[in-house]
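Structure first, sequence second, as always.
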């Protein structure tokens, strides 16, 4: 990457040579982002037609003002006609909480928060422990596995699936489509027409599968006790359905997407960081109460959501830069969580840091992650169970974590290869 910062013809500040989608920058964007924070905290990415916001205070400002920084243009999928005509109501994520502004967001969020309280998350701990033990039973005789696949990816989808009434035999396929949706969002410019067509066809099937789950539940409401049922049954003050079918489909699809790869990536990163330095692993073996801090520091140090997408509703000034109305933004929460002004020695993974929970990995403001209590419980229980069952776990040298390329999230495709005695 060039070390000079150049103004563009349009006069926008550009960080020369920084393309967040190259494999190198997907894996390690931190040197470029640190330089941006120092020299050009809000800069333009011409290839993506997006502004990148890197400083903690500026990212917080964006997340605190949804009336200026809208979430509704979040999904920007330039599907070819062959795909678009199969999605007459648009993409499922068009109707998700995360892509909706108030007042619709306020109404939809009120109906969903009930299923995601810290108390409900804590109540799931025993079931998650059973699940974790069953997964470990399935591979413990093998002595060497890629934990990213057999464990970290499996726990979250098997926890979130039942909450939304997803049949267990469909969970893995839905997970893959959800990952591909996240790769497509804001990323399609970097894909060939064939790739967009192939991934787009998967999105058509994703839409159909989630619609079928919702339709089936609508016909068979009796006896079911999950979030999907309460979303379908919710009524407004006049007794009419509170949510449209598309909104229910969008909320289900988005929760599968938002609730699975994020926790899978965080667990993969956390286990790797603990095993990279044996004293860290020993510390959590000796005192499992240290696991939550290790998880928070992982979220800060290398969180699974790189940046949050927003669009300005009017001209505004951010970090000294004038942004026009309609400017598309990447509020870079990963960069913000390495801001030295908030986290001294930010490039050091420090399990004893006193303020890791100040990270922005779960967002801030009205869109703050609804699944944070659940994610924290499942990650803690899964890592605790793994450490108890396989204390001699160690990394097999020569492997590195591999990712799908996305500007927004960081889905892991593998590379946490471990062995044990
Ligand atoms: C380590 C795990 C997780 C991380 C790092 C994470 C991160 C985030 C972030 C950054 C946002 C804010 C998006 C924005 O402002 O545009 C968000 C929102 C959301 N997350 Fe999570 N998430 C995680 C796990 C989960 C889980 C387990 C669920 C379960 C359903 C979930 C469901 C949601 C939903 C529905 C929203 C949208 C909330 C809204 O727009 O009001 N997430 N998440």
């Amino acid at each position: 990457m060039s070390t000079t910062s150049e103004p563009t013809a349009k006069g926008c500040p550009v960080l020369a040579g920084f393309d967040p989608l190259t494999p190198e920058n997907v894996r390690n964007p931190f040197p470029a982002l640190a330089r941006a924070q120092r020299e050009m905290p809000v800069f333009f990415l011409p290839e993506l037609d997006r502004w990148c916001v890197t400083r903690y205070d500026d990212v917080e400002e964006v997340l605190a003002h949804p009336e200026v920084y809208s979430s509704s243009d979040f999904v920007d999928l330039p599907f070819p006609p062959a795909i678009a005509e199969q999605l007459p109501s648009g993409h499922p994520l068009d109707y998700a909480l995360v892509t909706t502004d108030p007042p619709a967001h306020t109404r939809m969020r009120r109906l969903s928060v009930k299923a995601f309280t810290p108390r409900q998350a804590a109540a799931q701990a025993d079931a998650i422990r059973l699940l974790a033990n069953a997964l470990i039973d399935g591979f413990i005789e093998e002595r060497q596995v890629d934990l990213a696949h057999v464990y970290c990816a499996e726990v979250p989808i098997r926890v979130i699936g039942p909450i939304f009434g997803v049949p267990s035999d469909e969970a893995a396929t839905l997970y893959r489509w959800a990952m591909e949706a996240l790769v497509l969002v804001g990323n399609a410019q970097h894909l060939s027409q064939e790739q967009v067509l192939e991934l787009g066809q998967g999105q058509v099937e994703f839409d159909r599968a989630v619609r079928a789950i919702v339709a089936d539940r609508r016909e068979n409401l009796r006896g079911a006790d999950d979030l999907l049922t309460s979303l379908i049954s919710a009524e407004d003050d006049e007794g009419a359905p509170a949510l449209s079918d598309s909104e229910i489909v969008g909320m289900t699809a988005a929760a599968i997407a938002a609730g699975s790869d994020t926790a899978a990536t965080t667990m993969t990163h956390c286990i790797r960081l603990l095993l990279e330095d044996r004293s860290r692993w020993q510390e959590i073996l000796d005192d499992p109460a240290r696991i939550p801090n290790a998880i928070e520091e992982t979220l800060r140090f290398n969180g699974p959501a790189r940046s949050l997408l927003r669009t300005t509703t009017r001209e505004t000034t951010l970090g000294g830069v004038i942004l026009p109305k309609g400017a598309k933004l990447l509020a870079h929460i990963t960069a913000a969580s390495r801001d030295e002004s908030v986290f001294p020695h930010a490039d050091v993974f420090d399990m004893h840091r006193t303020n890791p929970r100040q990270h922005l990995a779960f967002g801030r403001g009205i869109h703050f992650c609804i699944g944070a209590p659940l994610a924290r419980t499942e990650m803690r229980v899964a890592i605790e169970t793994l450490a108890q069952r396989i204390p001699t776990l160690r990394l097999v040298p020569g492997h590195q974590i591999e990712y799908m390329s996305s500007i927004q999230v960081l889905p892991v495709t593998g590379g946490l290869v471990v062995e044990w005695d």
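Margin note: Residues 245-276 form the longest helix (32 residues).
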